[in-house]
## 1
Amino acid sequence: MRAMTLAGWALATAGAGLLAGCGGMKDGHDQLVRTCITEGEVPETCSCIVDAMEAKLSADLFKRSAVAIAREKRPVGDYILSLSDEEKMQFFEAEQEMEKCELSATEGD
């Protein structure tokens, strides 16, 4: 189901502990892509998802999201619920773009 894109990515990144120990990665985009890949999604899909986030989230929200999801290993769903309503709307808009990304078969569409 296409509506599961954000939820699928949230599940894929929920256990992203491997990235926290990697030194030298400073770019939030790369951190999020690598977190997504580490959890089993294909690189092209991860890049597509993170591109959508970067395009639709404010620069500040995108940076905070990279820290929370990739570095602090916070589950995406919990993180989004902690945001203001305005920031949640930004994620909703990002999800509309994420639906264009092709998830691998591991999600069970």
## 2
Amino acid sequence: MNFETEYKNINFKISLEKEIFEDVTLLMGDKFNRLPNQTMIEIKKGTLGPYNLIITSSQKDGEEYIHYMSGILLTTDEEEVLDELGYYLEQENILDDIVAIREKYSITPGPAWKVS
């Protein structure tokens, strides 16, 4: 599933890919990072699944960053997944975080060695 949006003068291309796994127990993690039992039940039933989120952010100057997140648990219902993804992006401040990263790493006017 692919779509585009613009936020704070940055263009975002967002791609959501469902992860394919053979054994649901691989999602369990170690003893310190285990998923709650109810979440595992929903995954086993197939109503909840892990997704990869690939976001490409670019500005008019052509500078492009790619941001990759994996293991995002969302509904498997195709009619609801887009709404749930929007809620996830908003709740986790994903786009705001990307904007902050872009501002942090933008080089204007540049490092001292480049300016002089």
## 3
Amino acid sequence: MSSAVSSYADLPAIRSALFNNPPDTVPPTDELEILHAELTAYKVKSLELAKKAGDDIRTIEESMRRLKEKEKGKAKAIQKAERERACACNHLHLSRAF
């Protein structure tokens, strides 16, 4: 898992004329094979981006979990300091009373 979220490059546009302007008749096999290869490469790149996005989501979730734990720890430390301060003040008031 990476330590930072990375940027995403746009997927390249599909260049095949068959994809953009499909003909009314059956196209030549060569053109179909070229389109198939292009779509397969597009699928592979899409799956790589999906995996990268999943890794980035896990990185973000882990960072958020750590931040929440840190904030929770800070809140507990503040509460403890306030209790100790209140307790110390009570002891001072009690010692002055005697």
## 4
Amino acid sequence: MGSRVSFFISFSIHVALFLSYYFVRNLSPESFSEQIKLSLSKGQIPSLHFSLPKNSGEGPNTSSNSGLAGTPEAEIERFKNEIHFPPEALEQRLESDCSWEVVIGSNGAAKNITTIKPCKYKVFETQFRRSVSSWKFQLPEGNIIIIPVSFHIESDE
């Protein structure tokens, strides 16, 4: 790739980021939370994705760390973002989709864990149970949530 093409791509990305930031910032200056994703893949044209919060302009929810904290959907997402891909599964390139039903106990701890859709490999079940046993949900005792988890490897190839 020539230096002119590289410069043009870099310049275009910077201009797009600056203009997007400027326009989005002016839409809701007092309650702004942006998410920008830049995807670069070897041998491909860069793609740039912007997204605004769902409740743009309504102001942040300051009652907790997350804007939707305390709702089952938010708790599921919060927890799923903390589950780590088991290194031994990564080495073997194992993947699986699984689901569990979790009953919330006192102090937000998981009381009962029931497998709804079993994992193909035991390593994922072990990782989930290890993660959920130390997790504190921000839901009242007695709530029942279903947590679907997809253990998939994203490849750049």
